């Protein structure tokens, strides 16, 4: 009987493996500390220069808001001279492009300044605003297919089972109106290609179509507008669906925005991405012992009540099973920063606010059809009784007398109470608040205003943290980082042991100068509330917009 022979076993060279691991860590550190790639383009998206000699830079990404970029350049730097020399530039506009860890920031020049300090230092400061500002300058017409002088019907309405589709469709038809020059002169009237131009390869902005590998799971909703800006028309819907606007310019070397795309370099590709997954299952918190709870938000049948349901843990995504892969799946957030003496959190500010009133009251005018129904009933009844005495036409006169009495008294107001909030707050809590914008009760706008009022007073947790990039999580996109704007991440507070808070990244700032390496500053949760004066001005603008829609202004 022969003795079995063992198969040879491949030996592991531990020294080589260790050297490879060390080299990998060095490469990652070099990539993390490498300065961002910054480029300047003219107004026609032609590359003018690559910035290499900046004094300092501060770039801000804001969640669904317009961030700014401030770059200081030496006054004798050739690019600074080009920016200052506006008269001799072919275009007065300039475009900034910043690439760092897969993330891209692009925006238009807002202002160029020349500074001279009291110590004799001179430098040029260029201020740019993010491309998201285009949402404030693209208006959603009542009918984008007709000229401004003929707008029928009175209101644009786009309903869909998935609000993302409705928003992107509204954006597309209005970009089509601007780019195709249906009823307006094109930029160059003598160019025949500019008239009725539906060739997207010549457009400056396009809307990315929904692809099969990125199904739309956003909740149902409706987009309505009467010459509102795209930002105003979609702001509440985007917030409610927890979507993230992503305008990304297409440049040489980039992969196609979608298979078969034929667009020009410099084109803005608009997309709404779901970095939250709050309707399909994600995490809103957990403990260090039980891990993150897998939950989803369920919107009740009344369209207003939101509840958070805990569901069984899903299988771990394939992303976490791939060695060396970077990123975070929103269904199972992987990024958690822990606060402690030896932590990547270098500075932080934690804030928590309990929920506000448990009830919302709104209205003012009766629901459609109620006043009319009462009026018709009075006229008919009075006419019937009057016919018995030969006065069958007395009905309108009786209605005119009674109208001030019954007008807007039936079905004109409504109240909604959040029982779940009341139970969570306890017996002693605030009771009611008024819902701004709920002018006519039991209409779609009333429902939206009631829910908005309840949403504005929800329980909030806000934390601003400055972390050491790469310890261990990296900021970046497209395989270069674990998380970015809108990503749901976790963090702990030393004074609240055992608890993990999970919120979306709402703001990112990338700052560096000649003495310090690029450093990400991250804000998690709700950003600071806006200035009350600005809020009052916004409400005044909404009121003036209502008067404009009614034809008063």
From TrEMBL:
<protein>
    <submittedName>
        <fullName>Phage tail protein</fullName>
    </submittedName>
</protein>
<dbReference type="Pfam" id="PF14594">
    <property type="entry name" value="Sipho_Gp37"/>
</dbReference>
<feature type="domain" description="Gp28/Gp37-like">
    <location>
        <begin position="38"/>
        <end position="525"/>
    </location>
</feature>
<dbReference type="InterPro" id="IPR029432">
    <property type="entry name" value="Gp28/Gp37-like_dom"/>
</dbReference>
């Amino acid at each position: 009987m022969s003795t079995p022979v063992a198969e040879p076993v491949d030996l592991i060279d531990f020294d080589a493996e260790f050297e490879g691991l060390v080299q990998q860590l060095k490469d990652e550190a070099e990539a993390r500390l490498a300065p961002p790639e910054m480029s300047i383009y003219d107004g026609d998206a032609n590359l003018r220069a690559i910035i290499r000699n900046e004094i300092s830079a501060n770039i801000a990404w804001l969640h669904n808001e317009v961030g700014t970029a401030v770059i200081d350049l030496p006054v004798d730097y050739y690019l600074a001279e080009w920016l200052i020399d506006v008269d001799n530039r072919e275009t007065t506009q300039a475009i900034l492009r910043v690439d760092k860890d897969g993330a891209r920031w692009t925006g238009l020049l807002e202002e160029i300044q020349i500074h001279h300090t009291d110590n004799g230092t001179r430098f040029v400061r260029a201020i740019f605003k993010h491309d998201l500002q285009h949402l404030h300058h693209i208006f959603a017409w009542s009918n984008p297919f007709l000229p401004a002088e003929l707008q029928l019907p009175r209101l644009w309405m786009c309903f869909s089972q998935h609000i993302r589709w409705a928003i992107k469709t509204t954006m597309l038809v209005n970009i089509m109106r601007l780019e195709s020059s249906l009823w307006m002169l094109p930029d160059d009237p003598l160019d025949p290609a500019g008239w009725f131009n539906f060739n997207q390869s010549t457009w400056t902005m396009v809307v990315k179509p929904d692809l099969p590998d990125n199904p739309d799971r956003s909740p149902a909703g409706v987009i309505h507008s009467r010459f509102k800006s795209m930002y105003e028309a979609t702001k509440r819907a985007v917030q409610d669906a927890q979507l993230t606007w992503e305008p990304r310019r297409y440049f040489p070397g980039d992969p196609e925005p979608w298979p078969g795309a034929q667009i020009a370099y410099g084109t803005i590709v608009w997309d709404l991405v779901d970095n939250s997954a709050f309707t399909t299952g994600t995490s809103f918190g957990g403990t260090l012992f039980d891990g993150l709870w897998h939950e989803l938000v369920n919107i009740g049948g009344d369209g207003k009540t939101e509840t958070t349901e805990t569901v069984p843990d899903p299988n771990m995504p394939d992303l976490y099973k791939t060695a060396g892969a970077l990123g975070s799946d929103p269904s199972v957030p992987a990024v958690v920063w822990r606060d402690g003496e030896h932590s990547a959190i270098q500075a932080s500010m934690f804030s928590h606010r309990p929920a506000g009133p448990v009830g919302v009251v709104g209205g003012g005018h009766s629901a459609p059809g109620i006043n009319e129904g009462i009026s018709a009933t009075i006229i008919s009844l009075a006419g019937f009784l009057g016919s018995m005495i030969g006065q069958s036409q007395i009905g309108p006169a009786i209605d005119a007398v009674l109208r001030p009495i019954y007008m807007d008294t039936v079905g004109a107001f409504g109240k909604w109470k959040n029982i779940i909030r009341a139970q969570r707050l306890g017996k002693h809590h605030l009771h009611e608040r008024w819902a701004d914008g709920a002018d006519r009760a039991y209409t779609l706008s009333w429902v939206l205003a009631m829910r908005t009022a309840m949403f504005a007073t929800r329980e909030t947790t806000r934390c601003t943290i400055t972390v050491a990039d790469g310890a261990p999580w990296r900021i970046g996109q497209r395989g270069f980082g674990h998380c970015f704007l809108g990503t749901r991440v976790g963090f702990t507070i030393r004074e609240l042991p055992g608890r993990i808070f999970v919120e979306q990244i709402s703001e990112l700032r990338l700052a560096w100068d000649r003495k310090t390496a690029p450093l990400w500053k991250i804000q998690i949760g709700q950003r600071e509330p806006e200035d009350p004066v600005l809020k009052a001005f916004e409400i005044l603008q909404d009121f003036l917009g209502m008067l404009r829609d009614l034809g008063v202004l």
